[in-house]
Amino acid sequence: MTTASALLMQAVTDLAGLPKEGLGEERDSRWRGQRIVRVGEAWHLGVLLLTETHALATAEVLRAADPGRRGYTAESARERAARRALALRGGFGEGEVAHIGWTVIDVDAVDAGGESGPLKLIDGVPSVHWSTAGGWMPLEAYLRERVELLRG
Question: Which of 8, 21, 64, 135 is 20 to 30 A (C-alpha) from 41?
Fold first, then answer.
């Protein structure tokens, strides 16, 4: 039986040398104010983020940018621009991707037959819930497809 941890380790090996995207965390201090700072890097594989040591579940993805002086037709657009500016203020470069709100996946729990984040063992097959509207698919096929897309 192939385990989720073995599949993810193989994906990390296959991704070696390919570009990563930034992992960010929100910080707030009296002196530096609110910002999103870089805390690491990972390969972005759809609903998964992979580092050399961890699998993470994606959440918010944004590009660091100066909000400039724009008119907004929606409050949500104004809030998104403010979030992009927080990443810029926190040290991300203009246009750089920042992943915020990610969570660590307990891969050992999945290997033991449980579920963590978008991963679950279904009938002995490590599987991924690849979208809110989509169902479960075998993790092996999902990783193969996503790695190929990154290799492009």
Answer: 135
Tens digits of residue pLDDT in 42-92: 999 999 999 999 999 999 999 999 877 666 577 887 888 889 999 999 999
Residue with tokens 């989720």: 4
pTM above 0.85, yes or no: yes
Residues 129 and 25: their CA atoms lie apart, in Å, by 24
Specify the DSSP element, H or E, that contains 12.
Answer: helix 4-15
Per-residue pLDDT reduced to its tens digit, 13-25: 999 999 999 999 9
- Tell me how far apart the alpha carbons of residues 140 and 126 are, in angstroms, rounded to a whole number: 8
CA-based R_g, the chain, Å:
17
Rounded to the nearest angstrom, the gap between the alpha carbon of residue 89 and the centroid of all alpha carbons in its chain is 21
The count of other CB atoms within 10 Å of the CB of residue 137 is: 16
